Amino acid sequence: MFSIFKRDPIKKLNKLYEAKLEQAMYAQRNGDIRSYSMITAEAEVIASQIKELEKSTKT
Q: Which domain covers residue 28, as residue numbers?
């Protein structure tokens, strides 16, 4: 009944994922490859969380 008021966790994670990719892009442009690789690894973790949530909502 009140499911319209619940926040979508996938949407929140997608926004966070896009922000991490943007941070990684700027780090790479500035020549900071170490930060780029660390931020990209964080983005990959978020992507795997998104996939798990999508899988659990489909079944």
A: 9-58
Is residue 53 included in any domain, yes or no?
yes
Q: How many domains does the chain have?
A: 1
pLDDT tier at 53 (50, 70, 90 boundaries)?
very high
Flag whether the pTM goes above 0.85: no
**Smallest Cα–Cα separation from 23: which of 41, 39, 47?**
39
Please state, for a pLDDT cut of 70, what percent of the chain lies above it. Answer: 93
Phi–psi pair at 8, nearest 5 degrees: -85, 110
Rounded Cα distance between 51 and 17, Å, is 12
What are the CA-CA distances from residue 6 to residues 2, 18, 29 (Å)? 7, 22, 38
